[in-house]
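Note to self: keep these together.
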Amino acid sequence: MDSGVVSGRVKDSGIVIGRVMDSRLVSGRIIVIGVERNRVRDIGVVSGRVKDIGVVSGRVKDIGVVSGRVKDIGVVSGRVKDI
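Structure:
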């Protein structure tokens, strides 16, 4: 597990069945990753807050650059490749 450079705080990773590979640069807060069945590969540069990724049965590959706030991706049965 590699958190990389986190300038904010990771409050609750919850239940991670897979692995959190790279949080990289997070200037805001990751409050709840929730239940991750596979892996969160790259959150990339997030200047706001990632509040709740929720239940992801596939994989979140790249959220990329988020200048605002990702509040709830919710239930994703497939794959979120690039937001």
